[in-house]
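Section 3.1: Structural characterization of target chains.
Under the original work plan, the team committed to producing a structural model for every single-chain target entering the pipeline before any wet-lab resources were allocated. The record below documents one such target. The sequence was received from the expression subgroup and is listed exactly as submitted; it comprises 350 residues.
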Amino acid sequence: MALHKQNIVYTSNSETQTMVSLSKFDPYIVADIGGTNSRFGLVTSIDKAQQKVVIENLVTFKSSEFSSLEDAVLGYKESLNSLEVKQASLAVAGPVVGDKIKLTNLDWNFSILETKHNLDFKNLMIINDFTAYACSIQYLDKSCFQTIHKGIAVENYPQAVLGPGTGFGVALLINQAGAMNALALEGGHMSLAANTPLQAAIKEFMSRRFNFVSVERVFSGPGLRYLYQALAAVEGSQTRNISTAQISQYALDGSDEMCQRTLSLFCSWLGSIIGDFALTLGARGGIYLGGGILPRIVDFLRESEFEAAFKSKGQMSYYLEEIPVQLVTKSNTALIGAAAWFENHIGERM
């Protein structure tokens, strides 16, 4: 367990804000529950008008340390020094439909109502993790973004938030009656499209290993390792028994040619996939790339064929040319988004 007790102020304008007294605000827990890590924090102040949220007591657990969501929340509550907290907004990596929740890359199944009762919570919100990422966008200042492709965002058009981490998340921001609302999508589980003979050969090889080859099967942490193995098999090259993190590191430091070519293919193929999503979702308002992988390879991504592949859509290339692509580099944005979601759905009724 990594424990970080600190006061963090996330704002839209980089100003430093004085911490408000807890007596003026009913604090609540926020979390980003992923297949690898579970990140928690305590919201002690939020100002939607000024787009500021204060999150304290940041704690990161390995998700594998717990057998359930309920146990993870109880583990976090132990770090709060007996502070009584009766509310939470938790972002989870999986579809949120109805009361029964099954996480995609973590063997946790739970009932929202039962979890609320067992934790003795007054309010419990469960949302998709990329819905939370999408909700956080309005709270981030310019320093939190890196431009991958310049374009001109069209006001009031949809904005897509997507990217690879332990899985591949997708969400959409749409303007409804003047307010931006986030919709969770499961696009990471659609069929992977191959656009070149090499990509087709790799997909065919992976189809012999897996019953179904989705976008997430390649564009995720585990997927990068599958891609490394498949590329080597297709080319008849030797591989080493190395991890996803090592593949990225050896590609970035230039010490392994196969790792470099794997990461280059990962970036270019991803660019084409992101372009497909932009067309499908009509995301003229812009693309925001998130997830845990891309912020670690920013320079490599920029120098790759990502941008060219993103725009290469035949007669619709002009459409993609105009869509800006931004990479979100700030960590813990799902915590901010979970707070924004809570305020939009619970805070206004309190």
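The CA atoms of residues 218 and 226 lie 7 Å apart.
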